[in-house]
Amino acid sequence: MPSPPLVLAHGYLGFGTLGPLHYFNNIASILKAAGATQVFAPDVPPKGTLKDRSAQLAQAINDHFPGQNVHVIAHSMGGLDARSLIAGGATNIASLTVLGTPFRGTLVADVVTNPAILLQVNAARLIAAIGHYEIQVAATWPFEAEAESHFAVGELRSAVSNLGNGDYSGLAAYFRGLFSLDDDALSELTTEKCRQNFPDDQHDLRGVPSYSYAGSITPARTTPLLSVPGILLDSTGQENDGVVPVASATLKNHKGTFEVDHFGLVGWTPTDVSHLYEEIYGTITSLPLR
Questions:
Q1: What is the pTM for the complete model shown?
Q2: Do 90 and 201 fall into the same domain?
């Protein structure tokens, strides 16, 4: 039996390939070692709207695999793109596997698009989460004079100081400066927008076999870029991968939660994820032909 066509759908701010770089870092090689012979990683607009990204994904799949059914493996917003295609009636997606896809949005996007939401965050809990982060980093990096030097957490603590008084301007400026991601795509990742677009009963998946994986890790162990959003989510009690809460990243058929951050799910941390993609490929190849 020939190897089924696989499509790797990248997330927000991502790319298929960029020179020698692959968004799914070394993942195609892992899949090919497992038996895959047809692996395609298309590019869609990194900051595009869901409508634009999904339309370009559909076109890329149709151009590369005309008349064939494909299995989509998607990371982050790429999972929203693919689910939108299925909901819109696409008949050439044989299965969907998502990793760290925020089907219920993320508070991180909420805050960056509307900083006033910070007033809903408990300041005491946020300060406690910062302290917990500092303790963990101090244990990990014992030779640093201060744990907060690891990722500008001193500035974060200062920005939080007035939150309890209803002044979120300092913290808002901090997040704006940290992300600088004011674009159309970001609003698609908010909890409100995802609630509108993706029903919890998942009827929009129209019977297509769909599986989810998530990451869960403490802010002190994430890639440094994800430490602060991880602290924010940690302060609200949401288990997360540094960007996306686990509860947001799960479908009814949730296959597993791994101790990696959002970037680690696609191979960008030292954690070996080959077993994860071998499992995904095994699941795909065991499905009946559609």
A1: 0.91
A2: yes
